[in-house]
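hey so i finally got around to running the thing on that chain from the lab meeting. sorry it took forever, my laptop kept dying and i had to restart like 3 times. anyway pasting the input first so we r on the same page abt which one it is
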Amino acid sequence: MSVTTHPLTAEAMFAMSSTLGRAELLEGELIRTSPAGFEHGSITLKLAWPIARYVEEHQLGIVCAAKTGFLLERSPDTVRAPDLAFVTQARVDQMGVVKGYWPGCPDLVAEVVSPSDTYSEVQAKALAWIDAGCKVVWIVDPKQKHVTEFRSETKIRVFTMKDRLAASDVFGDWSIAVGKLFQ
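ok and heres what got predicted. didnt touch it at all, straight out
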């Protein structure tokens, strides 16, 4: 007798979310992740806090914290949860209140590199966000103390400690000194 396992759906994953902990769904397969480390969480907040304040003051949209799921693909389902996500107000207005995972990709994503991440894993994740429709992906690297911006597979820019991180097409005149993220 053979046992057939069916891919997990986004709805089933969401129903289990209160007991699941940190996890993502990749093509129907549940991928559990460990909690972020202290440095990771600190850097994420140093980026998220000023963005969230600016976005709220200018009514640009919604900034979501880590563990917020975005449903990127169906059949089999893929749900990703970036460290930071931003969705424009126009898209929020169009979609209305979403009780489960946001159906689609954020406009901007930031991922903070964990000590266990390899460069190829991080690059693959950034490009997966771009392929899903994200306009801007920031990969924040605490070890190298820089931020790599992906806008396409070939349009990649590195912001160093002396640079200011900005995405004027997403946030207008908002920017932050990259060095502040690593203090």
